[in-house]
Amino acid sequence: MDNPTGRNEYTESQFEHGRRLFARECRFILGVADLGQLPPADLPEVAFAGRSNVGKSSLLNALTGRKTLARTSNTPGRTRQLNFFSLDERLILVDLPGYGYARVSKTEVAAWTRTLKAYLRGRAPLRQVCLLVDSRHGIKPVDREMMDLLDEAAVIYLVVLTKIDKLGHDELDARCAALADELKSRPAAHPEIAVTSAEKRLGIADLRVRLAVLAIP
Predict the structure, then answer these.
(1) Do residues 81 and 67 touch, judged by C-beta distance below 8 A?
(2) Is pLDDT of 116 > 50?
(3) Which of 103, 153, 198, 200 is deepest in the core (most CB within 10 A)?
(4) Helices and strands in the chain, H and E counts
(5) Residue 74's pLDDT band (boundaries 50, 70, 90)?
């Protein structure tokens, strides 16, 4: 695969910095269903968003080198609140509720949507959103709705393709090229794309480097 993300290669010291940070203690702080319960806004935050069953929990576990930091499930829609994790008291990781899953009540969907929008629009320490997209399916209309919200709120987001081990090299190259073209018109989108597989641990070290720069020294 010929570097479909178009990024520069990282140095060994950058990889080591990312590895060391994500090898440190990462602890669950709390789950929030109401914005009045949010933790103090004293550390930079990175949020992980995506369609239900896109692999957010698996990616968080892979990044931190743990198996049960974030629960994984074959049942879409399991994460029903904003879950906050503190990484070495230097960076907060936020697992957002999955969106786009129909097997919940409209009342629940509306409540999650209101909470999510309020968080994205008003959370001062939020530095970036990792918008996870299943590489097998590409961008869906619900993903574009989230991208519209992030563009409107001027929240920088990095598109992270998941499950890339399920694609061939040519197919992944084509997926990344099409996605890169679409992101050109998105004002808050990072121009690069992260490609990952939590199962095969592909791209995990690279993503650690990208996120480590957001942590406090």
Answers:
(1) no
(2) yes
(3) 198
(4) 6, 7
(5) very low
Coil, helix or strand at residue 164? helix
Please, which residues have CB within 8 angstroms of residue 190's CB and are 6 or more apart in sequence? 128, 156, 157, 158, 159, 183
Cβ within 8 Å of residue 212, ≥6 positions away: 14, 17, 18, 21, 22
Structure-token pair, residue 55: 């692999």
- CB burial of 170-209 (b: ≥16 within 10 Å; e: otherwise) equals eebeebbeebbeebeebebbbeebbbbbbeeebbbbbbbb
Parallel/antiparallel/unpaired status of strands 91-95 and 45-50: parallel
Q: Measured between alpha carbons, how far is residue 150 from residues 82, 120, 166, 192, 208 in Å?
A: 17, 7, 28, 16, 22
CA max distance for the chain: 49
Tell me if 135 sits within 8 A of 172, measured CB to CB: yes
Weakest mean pLDDT among 3-12, 52-61, 187-196:
3-12
User: What is the arithmetic mean of pLDDT over 112-125?
Assistant: 86
pTM of the model: 0.90
**Residue found under tokens 């095969």:** 200
pLDDT > 60? residue 104: yes
Task: List strands edge to edge, sheet with 26-32.
Answer: 26-32, 82-87, 91-95, 45-50, 126-134, 157-162, 189-195
Per-residue pLDDT band for 77 (boundaries 50, 70, 90) equals very low
Query: For residue 47, which of 155, 151, 147, 128 has the smallest C-alpha distance?
Result: 128
Bridge partners (DSSP) of residue 91 are 87
